[in-house]
Design goal:
The chain is mainly α. It has 25 helices and 2 strands. A hairpin with a 2-residue loop joins strand 1 and strand 2. The termini are far apart. The N terminus is likely disordered.
Length: about 500
């Protein structure tokens, strides 16, 4: 593994103290929000040096997580890229088909809870594999749906499977990652979402409408790569951080009771933080889905873009997203997590007019930079959530906060398409047309404002350590267990000697 001797990152002050924030009054905490927003301006090492800090196993953990997260996004966007074809197949309006998107988002929180607890209790590996097996079964099932009800049922079940992946992927990629490289690796991981969208855009152009099976081959194809991802994960062990926690639980006797005790401590100490994370992720999910899900439909329906033009625009937009996530994820290690998020929201809001109102091919530039901002802010999120989450329930908290945010924002595309139908345009033949660009711009303006407020008010623990030795929750669990054992020992010592019954 490459080494890094410079003191640029270690000498930079952390953006917040976990224990101090927990014992701070509301007024004092709010008074610290503006001063702590000031960028720490840590010196920026060469990102190539940071990437070289990862050893082979850490790279493999990142790669398997990136591929799984990419295919999660691919599977999700198969519906948004085939809205027109699905509507024709099932004889439904756009707002009806987008319920398939809404159901996935709603049920992902169920999967996040189930697989998050399983991953924190039993390890990252096997829940990850089960997730991908379900992807295979349900993506194939969607491709064979013949009725609208079957389609909705498959997408709802698919949401449960998809919900369990994000937290697991983030933990797998980042738990063992060197502290100095977290920002850039976080940005790279999050861009699996944009990469998956990019793949879905390209493959939908090649597979949808090019055979007698219409839209179905895209879903059938989507069931294939998870087989390879499963085989890849089978070849890797558990992460080092999880193994340390497993050893701690074994050393404390009953593994299950120790896990439950960790949960009680985490809930008691961090319930307000968990609530904040759900609200923050609701804003972020509104941001991504509000700017992306209906955008292909807007280009095709409102501005009469051809399939090829929509594909090119989407590809360029996702290239911008991938660039933004990686660059801003890296930059957040220099300027801070909250500051980076707020700047991206401000710039993204300024770009909404060209993003939704330019009707020529020049909209490609606006799409590139708008998604640079959206996914630039998102590039900070994996490591920001990991640093904010209690260590023993990191997968559960990261995944559940993300997916509960998805649940809150699950109706994004349905809201936009329904409101859009109130702003009709002259029809093109038998095709109804709507001013989706106006709706997206208004919707996204509100979302950006909301995220700015939440990011400003929230905490930040940039540089937090993930190992057992620096986990204050585990320390409290250990102290409680020691006190209990001492109490039992004292009780046994004070118990008077029992007389022989025969005497």
């Amino acid at each position: 593994m490459a080494t890094y001797d410079e003191k640029t990152w270690d000498d930079a002050p952390s953006s917040g103290d976990v224990t101090a924030d927990q014992h701070m009054g509301i007024g004092k905490y709010l008074a610290t929000r503006w001063p702590t927003l000031k960028p720490p301006m840590a010196k920026a090492p060469n990102p190539i040096k940071l990437i070289r800090l990862l050893n082979t196993q850490q790279w493999l953990f990142f790669l398997v997580a990136f591929l799984a997260w990419s295919w999660d996004a691919f599977d999700f966007f198969t519906v948004s890229l085939t809205v027109t074809e699905l509507g024709e197949q099932f004889d439904k309006e756009t707002s009806d088909i987008t319920w398939g998107i809404t159901l996935v988002l709603m049920f992902r929180s169920v999967g996040a809870v189930i697989f998050g607890i399983a991953s924190d209790r039993y390890g990252r590996k096997w829940p990850f594999i089960v997730n991908n097996i379900l992807f295979i079964v349900l993506e194939l099932g969607t491709g064979f749906c013949n009725t609208y009800s079957q389609f909705l049922a498959c997408r709802a079940l698919f949401g449960i499977a998809m919900g369990g992946l994000y937290g697991n992927a983030a933990a797998t990629a980042l738990e063992d990652c060197p502290e100095e490289a977290r920002g850039v690796i976080s940005g790279m991981l999050q861009q699996g979402y944009a990469f998956g969208y990019l793949l879905a855009t390209v493959f939908s152009r090649g597979l949808v409408g090019t055979t007698s099976h219409g839209w179905r081959p895209l879903f059938w194809f989507g069931a294939c790569p998870p087989v390879l991802i499963i085989l890849f994960r089978l070849c890797l062990p558990e992460t080092k951080s999880y193994r340390e926690r497993a050893e701690f639980r074994k050393a404390n006797g009953n593994v299950a009771s120790t896990f439950v005790a960790e949960g009680k401590v985490a809930l008691k100490r961090h319930w307000l933080l968990l609530t904040y994370l759900v609200l923050l992720m609701a804003g972020f999910n509104f941001m991504s889905h509000g700017s992306q899900d209906l955008y292909p439909q807007m280009l095709q329906n409102q501005y009469n873009f051809s399939h090829d033009a929509v594909t090119v625009t989407q590809v360029v937009a996702n290239l911008g997203a991938m660039a933004g996530g990686t660059i801003i994820g890296y930059s957040s290690q220099i300027f801070g997590r909250r500051f980076s998020i707020i700047v991206m929201c401000v710039v993204g809001g300024a770009l909404l007019y060209p993003y939704g109102f330019v009707s020529s091919k020049s909209v490609i530039a606006a799409a590139f930079f708008e998604q640079f901002c959206v996914q630039g802010a998102w590039g900070v999120i994996p490591i920001h959530l990991m640093e904010l989450s209690p260590g023993s329930f990191r997968t559960f908290v990261v995944g559940t906060s993300y997916q509960l945010g998805n649940l809150v924002s699950s109706a994004s595309s349905t809201i936009e398409s329904t409101i859009g139908e109130r702003f009709p345009l002259p029809p093109k033949g038998k095709t109804k047309r709507y001013r989706y660009g106006l709706v997206i711009a208004i919707f996204m303006g509100c979302v950006y404002a909301y995220v700015i407020v939440l990011a400003f008010l929230g905490p930040e623990y940039r540089g937090r350590r993930f190992d057992v030795a620096h986990d204050s929750d585990l320390e409290e669990v250990g102290l409680r267990r020691n006190r209990r054992d001492q109490t039992q020992d004292s009780s046994e010592a004070e118990e008077p000697p029992r007389k022989d019954l025969e005497e």
